[in-house]
Amino acid sequence: MFAMLNRQTEGLLLIIVAAAGYAIMPILAKVVYADGTLHPMDVVTWRFIFATPLI
């Protein structure tokens, strides 16, 4: 039971982190695009570069 509770807590925490990351993406994109130094393709490239090791 205790191990199950820990797995459920871990799952809930991962869901919250994923939702927060998904929610903050438009805000970060707005800031990056307002600066004007990065092209949208650059942003996508960097996003995949940082995400690939996490997968």
Question: In terms of topology, how is this protein built?
Answer:
Layout: H1 2-35, H2 40-51
The shape, in one word, is elongated
- In total, how many domains does the architecture comprise? 1
Ranges where pLDDT stays below 50 over 5 or more residues in a row are none
Q: Tally the beta strands.
A: 0
What is the string of SSEs from the N terminus onward? Answer: HH
Tell me the radius of gyration: 16 Å
- Name the helicity range: over 70%
Describe this structure in words.
With 55 residues, this protein is an all-alpha fold. It has one domain. The protein contains two helices and no strands. The longest helix is centred in the middle third of the chain and has 34 residues, at 2-35. The mean pLDDT is 86.
Give me some keywords for this one.
mainly alpha; 0% strand; 55 residues; single chain
Concise synopsis of the structure shown:
This protein has 55 residues and is mainly α.
